[in-house]
Amino acid sequence: MSGVQNVRQNALQNGLQNALGFVLRTRGRRRLHWTDVATYAYLMVGLFTLFAPVLWLVLSSFKTESAIGQFPPTLLPYSQKTALVAGHDQPLPLYRVTTPSGETREMAQVSRIGIMATMVDPARPEDTLKVNIRQRVPVQELTFAWTNYSDLFGKFTFGTYLWNSVFITVVATLLTLLFNSMAAFALSKYRFTGQKAVYLLIIGTLMIPPTIILVPVFLVINQVGLLNNLWGVILPAVATPTGVFLLRQYMLTIPDELIEAARMDHASEWRIYWRIVLPLSAPALAVLAIFSVMWRWNDFLLPLIVLSRNEQFTLQLALNAFQGELNTQWHYLLAMTVITLLPVTLVFAFLQRHITTGIASAGVK
């Protein structure tokens, strides 16, 4: 057992060394060539462009409501420090005040009228001072507002929105994999009249924008009684031409001899599909699963026209409804956005190794 572990550790170390050597390799032998400098600069700019907004979003989701509205904005979740002062029910904000004598003191602001603020020493509440607002600087401290996330489940029906999105995404993805793989199996391994015409008809639907068929889809959903029903969001999108094309191209690489051998062993067509074709198509199914999760999880337009009740809203609809006309609680909105991004990120992180294999194999016949 230890020998197997040593082999795995050595393989992992060799892989890391090869990857590190590939990333750090340079054109110049002894020193960096100007093309190396340009390449690394280009990669750093691209890395910053891609991840800076996400980093800003995550850090801002831990800011308090007052910290989000302060100017100039800060990257880290700094918030103004407060102190309890005798004679005041609520904590007062702290400032570093420059007194007329030039001394710097840490005082709490009691009130402000125009450009003049009344300050008080927290240790000596009877000691008050009126200063110009330009003579005081807020005292800030690094504070992570975890209540932004906990309040989502306490003050709002966030759990309902999350469950609706998870239910739609999981069920729609499973049905998409099932129906698309069945269609791809028929188009890749069966020979029948009109096979190419059916395939071209399916691929031709890619040229139709989804907004063109939005009204007919709504009328059909209304006629079958699926308005304000999660199934009204799931069923219209279970069959996708992209999924059929991707899986058909991959299944063409599966040898027909395997299927013929299974038929000689009296295996049914369903068993051939379920026990042979699907397992061999796992890389392509993983790619389609990633695409389907992203499509369903981020879908906004179809749920918008199908669902009108608050208890049926998905996370995307909840984010839209959370923005009020007069007031928007940005700290809760940013926290909800971060939670919305997590499932897609996790799915991509665990299944991304199948993307290259699946897409590359789908283009080979």
Automatic annotation (TrEMBL):
GO terms for biological process: transmembrane transport. Keywords: Cell membrane, Membrane, Transmembrane, Transmembrane helix, Transport. It is a multi-pass membrane protein. It holds the Pfam family BPD_transp_1. It comes from the Bacteria. Its main location: membrane. It is found in: Cell membrane. GO terms for cellular component: plasma membrane. Belongs to the binding-protein-dependent transport system permease family. PANTHER family: ABC TRANSPORTER PERMEASE PROTEIN MG189-RELATED, ABC TRANSPORTER PERMEASE PROTEIN MG189-RELATED-RELATED. This is Carbohydrate ABC transporter membrane protein 2 (CUT1 family). It comes from Sphaerotilus mobilis.
